[in-house]
Target: Xaa-Pro dipeptidase
Amino acid sequence: MYVERIERVKTYLLGKKIDALLVSNFYNILYLTGFKTLTTDEREAFVLITQNKLYLFSDERYLSKNYKLPTTNYELRLIEPKRGLLVHLKEIVGKEKIKTLGFEAEDLKYYEHFHISQQLAETKLMPTDRTLVKLREIKDEREIALIEKACKITDKCLEDTSKIVKVGVSEKELAFKLEVWLREKGYDLAFDPIVAVDENSAIAHYNTKTGEGIVKKNSVILVDFGVKYKDYLSDITRMIFFGKPTDGITVAYENLLTAQKKTIEKVTVSRKLREPDLFCRETLTARGYPNYPHSTGHGVGLEIHEYPKVSFTSEDDKKIGQVITIEPGVYFSGKWGMRIEDTVVIDDDLTARTLTKYPKEIQII
Amino acid sequence: MYVERIERVKTYLLGKKIDALLVSNFYNILYLTGFKTLTTDEREAFVLITQNKLYLFSDERYLSKNYKLPTTNYELRLIEPKRGLLVHLKEIVGKEKIKTLGFEAEDLKYYEHFHISQQLAETKLMPTDRTLVKLREIKDEREIALIEKACKITDKCLEDTSKIVKVGVSEKELAFKLEVWLREKGYDLAFDPIVAVDENSAIAHYNTKTGEGIVKKNSVILVDFGVKYKDYLSDITRMIFFGKPTDGITVAYENLLTAQKKTIEKVTVSRKLREPDLFCRETLTARGYPNYPHSTGHGVGLEIHEYPKVSFTSEDDKKIGQVITIEPGVYFSGKWGMRIEDTVVIDDDLTARTLTKYPKEIQII
Model:
């Protein structure tokens, strides 16, 4: 699996006439080697891919004597206080006669690039754009199986946790219960859950951690969360109505649900992923609902927001093996909002198959 | 408070003859404006500081009609699909006649810089280095009070949670109990806790999430965790011995404890922060213990690792208002390891005062 991914990078480099690629992004390193550090953003590791070899650079906290990568043809290089990445790079560039060195232009910091360019004065640094994130866009069978499992856990977690909804329960408590349910079983959250009650549900990306909402009689409750299972993520949003909602809310929900289901069907017949976005917006605004202030969806995998884009500005084609969300919403500022979201995979016949299976029929408790 | 911080940036810019500074780092934006987005790394906000004004750029999920910043002289600018940061920047640069635009070279990505430079062809882009993180290094009274409170919560959390240590408890369970204790009270973890038992404690930055350790009779248990209280962090490490440790372990602990206490005293009489690092390493290696594979400490504040550096390569002076950790360790690979860590503030008289007060005497339960 890793060997194959690395080979794909090598083929890309040959095509672009780039001798080597420096990989700095945490998730791209994980994708290529299975290796991960404790933090995603503290630059504790780098990878260099040449036609001969893969080099992994990290410090002795991670690269103990017995450490092995689950791939072939690699070399581990220890980052030490006086022997950092730049020293190693210079050595390898000399030894392997690297004339052009690609780097991840959307990830490498300005100063990191600057310091490398100072150190490797005779090497041409070549920005590469989204090379690895575009490879990651297409999931293999194992990845889809992991996301599918994450979705199954999501469904069960929501089923169990929604049972504790009652008058007086806070948004924070509900969010915490989702997390405890997962963590006790050894799973993790994919991101900080959004639990938003009544007027808070009208804020498309409400911050539950700083909010004060509490379930009241006849509350509208939005729950947006996901599960991390063996590094792969799911994403779901469901509405819970505590007590009978008003007719306006019920009708809006039915319209939103119909639009969301039709949008998933629309994915099946679309070639570009902006088509379902445009379709869904048109469907809802034609019914008199306000346009929603976010994309209709996004790719999901090792990260909660990755390629492909599912928005009206997206240039991305629909492809076999993509995993995306479909999550339109209806929001009335200061009053209430609702969103229905599923994680969906593009199957071998280019149809969209929904992986999150928690019921979407109006849920009144 | 924010006004004062922004004024300090303006003074810096005047001195450097830079007309405006683009701030991209999540924590620096939080420090300057109190504003924060849901994610730290998805570039959901930017700040631009000119001599006239502070501009905050974010999208409508965050900048609702009623949104107000806790400062003066600012303008909110909405990032929209077809009207992004670059469009706003171009407009403001024209209006305010900005000739030189500073940016955070250690934070801005290569491509972000590239796209800005393409768009602002007549503006000189000036890399600035650690400007804001160096301001953040010196904490004001309010910040120290928040860190002090985080440390108090840390002490109490550790006191309560250490009571559940018994044979058969896993590292993961202990880590989770620390978190549950905090979250139930509305607090947060500062970072993923390290709970490491026996041979795992010899790995300086052990990953509890992927580990399998379980407390046994006579186990050595390392607990390294911190609390986030109103965005400010604490950091502590303590050892728990379950049953009577061997003489070698007891002696090592006493030596490490003496060294750690003396190193905190050494901070008081040091001018450079590499001095306590060198002192502590020498003290322990002179006693025959192996050198530890990490810094003696680091700054703590909005981030768990920030300035000043407390390592033998550090150039940083000791200054009033710094908050740092002192955390030497003794590690025997494959056997056991230990680390003792406190969060320490530099007071007005330049002495070091320990904020984490959980007892350090050998703790056998």
Summary: The two ends of chain B are 46 Å apart (CA to CA). Residues 191 and 324 of chain B are 16 Å apart (CA to CA). Chain B has a mean pLDDT of 95.
